[in-house]
Amino acid sequence: MQERNEYPPGVPCWVDSGEPDPPAAAEFYGGLFGWQMEERMPAEAPGNYIVASLQGREVAAVGSLPPEMPQQGAWNTYVCVESADGTAAKARDAGGTVVIEPFDVFEAGRMALLADPAGAMLCLWQPNQMIGARLVNEAGCWNWSDLRTSDPQGAREFYAAVFGWEASEIDAGPGIATLWRAPGYGDFLERTVDPEIRKRQKDVGAPPGFEDAIGWLVPLEHSTTPDAAPHWHVTFSVDDADATAARAAELGGEVALPPTDMPWVRLAVLRDPQGAEFTVSQFQPPE
Fold first, then answer.
1. How confident is residue 38, by pLDDT bands cut at 50, 70 and 90?
2. How far from chain centre, in Å, is Cα 133?
3. What count of Cα atoms within 13 Å lies in the side-chain half-sphere of residue 106?
4. 205 & 276 share domain
5. Over residues 65-69, mean pLDDT
6. Based on the structure, what is the number of domains in the chain?
7. Containing domain of residue 116, as a range?
8. N or C: which end of the chain has fewer CB within 10 A?
């Protein structure tokens, strides 16, 4: 079981989707992934924040969009930080924008919303009572977040300055892919979660350094949405990409990219009924 009780600073830790109609989105994702949904906003508070769980562990959430934002669904990624205020200042110094200044989310933690120099938005999360996703990388759980950008070189410089990330090129079969790495993350996983992580990855032929992987850097022209603005995109693990895509269509969603074989995975790109795009990925290592 890929359970998490802690995230080191600089590692993505949570995803949620802002939706015009959160209860309807909760019904869609509950039907798609088998999530159990629980409203977490106080009764007197405006809007919704509906947290999804699998096996009794928090995996993601859907919430209300601020009225001043475009009313279309979109997934958000959060990065764990020691200080939301300090990291927001770093982002500003590196050429980014602090879209929403750091603020406390009740007793759960402290967050901020950033935009990198190309405009891709990313949340900061300074945990208190809520660390982030408690279960990851299993069927129905969050797997990756990828930056899709029009300025890969600028992204390398910005995220290195803010989080210390490194971008590494790896052979991805038909071409070269760029992997985001948080140096030391593999040591953390080996110590706290998965003592066999390096051996297991070596056994299936993973490239050196893959234990530090936190996501991918994808030029927009190579993505499934080349005309989109720069953004962070989320991927969920599934046991069967074909069945999940078919189920999404039955629930009123859209199959933007039908199930397709790629190196290591079979994936499909889906959109929920309110427009939030995401990928589902079925792991299938090479023989």
1. very high
2. 10
3. 8
4. yes
5. 79
6. 2
7. 12-127
8. C
To the question of pTM greater than 0.70 for the whole model, the response is: yes
pLDDT tens, residue by residue, 238-282:
999 999 999 999 999 999 999 999 888 999 999 999 999 999 999
Count CA atoms closer than 13 A to 33's CA, side-chain side.
Answer: 28
* Distance (Å, whole) CA 119 – CA 194: 35
